[in-house]
Amino acid sequence: MEPVTRNYYVGIDGGGTKCKARLENAQGELLGEGLSGPCNPAQSAETAFASIIEATTLALEAASLPATKMSDLNVCMGLAGVNVARYRETAQRWIFPFKHTHITTDLHIACLGAHAGQDGAIIITGTGSSALASVGENLSSIGGHGFPLGDKAGGAWLGLRALQYTLEALDALVPTSRLVKDMCEALGTDEPQAIVGKSLHYKSSDFGKFAPIVVKCANDNEPVSLSIVNEGKQYLTGVISQLEKLGAKRISMIGGISSQWAKWLPDNIQQRLQPAKCSPEFGAISLVKHLVKES
């Protein structure tokens, strides 16, 4: 049984498709974790807020702690989308039932976790994509402009590129391929207008559902998928070079499809990458502990 204490810490990693909460006590022991749905205020502020509460509630339940302990939680949340001022302001207006709340970017907490609080840089390739270098007191971001303006090499971008090629192939403008066949199968139709009707209001998470098709085809050396992957590889190679110019000595790739990109990148690029030491949620907890101590 967890002893009576008011020092609970929660780190939340909120991304385009999922929200994960990690609950620790003052001694740094993991008490429970919770996983919920999309958590990007730029996509839906209402959904993001609900996901944060749900993930935190599930973490409390996993720790066999009552929901009334919400008011004892010191929480740091790193959220996708809050690098844009208007969405950060939206998140800062939220009223949480927590004791202490700090909001930062998902990149910030991921970088803290990946390098255990030391200098370094990260590249996130999940539903979206972005990069951050933390060197001394300087935080420098690359990308993170949001889908569809940015997020190149992210899952949503892979799905969008596959869908674009599929439509062009169905219009007989480019050769058909296995990728086109697999995409039509997933969509349940090979009629261009029907596909447009289905996808007209897709969010990034919807496009991201097609990423596994591109990944599987590329791993089987399907030419169209390989051309999409090559475009992403060129982008990521440029990002890595820029992070090094910013002074990052240690670079990690994280995110749902980071292991795939690491395999696809040239050997000389792979050798410049280092594994992440800890999770983004761990980084968020280390930050909130520091902030609470300072206050």
UniProtKB/TrEMBL annotation:
Q: Which SUPFAM superfamilies match?
A: Actin-like ATPase domain
- Specify the species: Alteromonas australica
Q: Known InterPro entries for this protein?
A: ATPase_BadF, ATPase_NBD, Euk-type_GlcNAc_Kinase
What CDD domains would the database entry show? ASKHA_NBD_GspK-like
Top-level taxon: Bacteria
Sorted alphabetically, which PANTHER family does this protein's record hold?
A: N-ACETYL-D-GLUCOSAMINE KINASE
Q: Which Gene3D superfamilies match?
A: 3.30.420.40
Q: Where is the ATPase BadF/BadG/BcrA/BcrD type domain?
A: 10-270
Q: What is this protein called?
A: ATPase BadF/BadG/BcrA/BcrD type domain-containing protein
